[in-house]
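Annotated sample (chain length 78).
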Amino acid sequence: MSAPTREMVEEALEAARPELVKHGGNVELLGVNAAGVVLVRLVGACSGCKSASGTLHNVIEKALKERLDGVTSVQAVL
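Output written by the structure step:
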């Protein structure tokens, strides 16, 4: 199984964005490596929010894993 491309991840992130925007935040894709780890930065109200970890895993990672084979995890970079 190969890692998804940056373009594939950007497209899949669109599924997570409405939930983030609804709360005044968003997500910026920083990259995806060969192991399928997606690196993102939470921005807006999501940056530094006490629920950011839950958002990262329950909204962003879930949306990516549902739509793309090869995503192993999503990690936030500050």
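Annotation: The chain has a mean pLDDT of 94.
Annotation: Strands lie at 25-32, 37-44, 73-76.
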